[in-house]
Specification:
- The protein is of the alpha+beta class.
- 44% of the residues lie in helices and 17% in strands.
- The protein is built from 8 helices and 8 strands; from the N terminus they run ααββαααααββββαββ.
- The protein has helices at 3-10, 14-22, 44-56, 61-67, 72-123, 128-131, 135-147, 228-241; strands at residues 30-31, 38-39, 152-157, 160-165, 186-193, 213-220, 249-256, 263-269.
- It has a 4-stranded mixed β-sheet with strand order 5-8-6-7, with helices on one face. The chain has a two-stranded antiparallel ribbon with strand order 1-2. A two-stranded antiparallel sheet has the order 3-4.
- Strand 6, helix 8 and strand 7 (249-256) form a beta-alpha-beta unit.
- Helix 7 (135-147) crosses helix 8 (228-241).
């Protein structure tokens, strides 16, 4: 019978039969070499029912192929195994549902604790000598930290704890990519070494490209390292404040330098 006749017998769409042919589940008994028409035997309808039901039950194509020539005893055992698998998954989903709100509350608590730690560190820090910014601009920067805290980037670098807020969409990079100098997706667009204070060179990198994604990588000496929480957030805050109309994404990685000197890199994600 033709594919249309066989489709009516099986109560299916001919396209389904063409798909089963394509994936080698149910091949026609004959394909006319001139017209390309597919022809099926009536007894292939039993194979179709088996395939259709196994597919609806969630078996993969490869699993179905392995069951096509098995007897019904094996088929029912396969159904039992599939049911057990789905019941286990259902229990896992129920457990996730129960723990969902608890985990959400725990994460929110951690965010609140981090926010408190950052803002406290910033309030205790005087940025005048290092950054040369006014008290009004500094107050604005702290306000930005609080407003954009939904996009925090948190990293744990060596023995130092550092939090910096991330303006824009995105999440923290995996640990192996926290050192942006080693991330092949970024390129260095500015660097400064052996400096004393950020205010001495901040005007050299302050302008950001609209729509670009930036990362700052900083190594600071023994004197600056204890204040790295405030230090990093101020740099990000200054960049945001002085590029207010531009769409931008910023991240920062800071650690203690090994040579006692201060080092600073600005990197941009490659397009």
């Amino acid at each position: 019978m033709t594919i249309k006749e066989f489709a009516r017998l099986c109560d299916c769409n001919p396209q389904t039969l063409r798909y089963y042919d394509h994936v080698d589940l149910l091949k026609p008994v004959k394909v006319d070499q001139w017209s390309g028409y597919r022809y099926y035997d009536e007894d292939q309808a039993l194979a179709f029912v088996r395939i259709k039901n196994l597919q609806k039950a969630g078996f993969t194509i490869d699993e179905i192929k392995g069951l096509l020539d098995k007897d019904n005893h094996v088929i029912y055992k396969a159904f039992d195994a599939k049911i057990a698998e789905e019941e286990k998954r259902l229990q896992e989903i129920k457990a996730i549902q129960k723990s969902y709100q608890t985990e959400m509350d725990q994460i929110q608590e951690k965010i609140n604790e981090a926010k408190k730690k950052i803002t406290q560190a910033m309030y205790e820090y005087d940025p005048t000598e290092e950054f040369g910014i006014s008290s009004d601009e500094y107050a604005s920067i702290i306000g930005n930290v609080n407003r954009h805290f939904d996009n925090i980037v948190v990293s744990d670098i060596n023995q130092f704890d550092f939090e910096a807020f991330h303006h824009g969409e995105g999440v923290a990079e995996e640990q192996e990519y926290l050192n942006f100098l080693h991330n092949p997706e970024y390129e260095v667009v500015f660097e400064k070494h052996g400096w004393s204070n950020v205010k001495d060179f901040i005007d050299e990198f302050i302008n950001l490209e609209d729509g670009a994604e930036y990362a700052l990588y900083i190594r600071v000496n023994e004197e600056k390292a204890p204040r790295n929480i405030a230090f990093a957030n101020i740099i990000l805050g200054v960049l945001l404040a002085r590029n207010p109309e531009k769409k931008k994404s910023l991240a920062c990685d800071i650690e203690k330098s090994e040579d006692g000197q201060n080092h600073f890199w600005v990197l941009k994600r490659k397009k």
